[in-house]
Amino acid sequence: MSGLDWPGLMRGGLVGLRLQPEEFWRLTPAELALMLGAYAGPAPLTRARLDELAARWPDQAKGAENDRGGRAGQLGPAGGGA
Questions:
Q1: CA 28 remoteness from chain centre
Q2: Within its chain, how far is the Cα of 18 from the centroid?
Q3: Could you read off the pLDDT of 8-49 as tens digits, one per residue?
Q4: 49-62: string of b/e by CB count within 10 Å (b at 16+)?
Q5: How far is Cα 35 from Cα 12, in angstroms, rounded to an integer?
Q6: Which residues are within 8 A (CB) of 40 and not within 5 positions of it... i.e. 6 or more apart?
Q7: What is the DSSP string of 42-68?
Q8: What contacts 70, CB < 8 A, 6 or more positions away?
């Protein structure tokens, strides 16, 4: 026994992904797993997480000093600024 759930993989590929049988059988198990979302990566940023990050690192108010010692929104000499 290979340890792979072939009926489940076939269902996912043929029904879920709507692959043709010849397309399904040309895939490696790793390719099929990727297509089925097994390696989906991190979850997308949610509104709650964005709010959490904004509270932790708030934007500076207009006119506040920036981290380079200048005024926020003001270009330096190289930029021909204000």
A1: 24
A2: 24
A3: 989 999 999 999 999 999 999 889 988 998 877 788 899 999
A4: eeeeeeeeeeeeee
A5: 9
A6: none
A7: SPPPPHHHHHHHHHHSPPPPTT-B-TT
A8: 76
The residue written with tokens 């009926």 in the block is 7
For the chain, the structural domain boundaries read 1-57
The tokens describing 55, both together, are 């509270």
Identify the DSSP state of 33.
H
Structure-block tokens of residue 52: 């959490």
Q: Find the Cα–Cα–Cα–Cα dihedral 31, 20, 8, 30, rounded to 10°.
A: -10
Q: How many Å is the Cα radius of gyration of the chain?
A: 26
Q: Which two tokens stand for residue 19?
A: 């692959």
pTM confidence score = 0.47
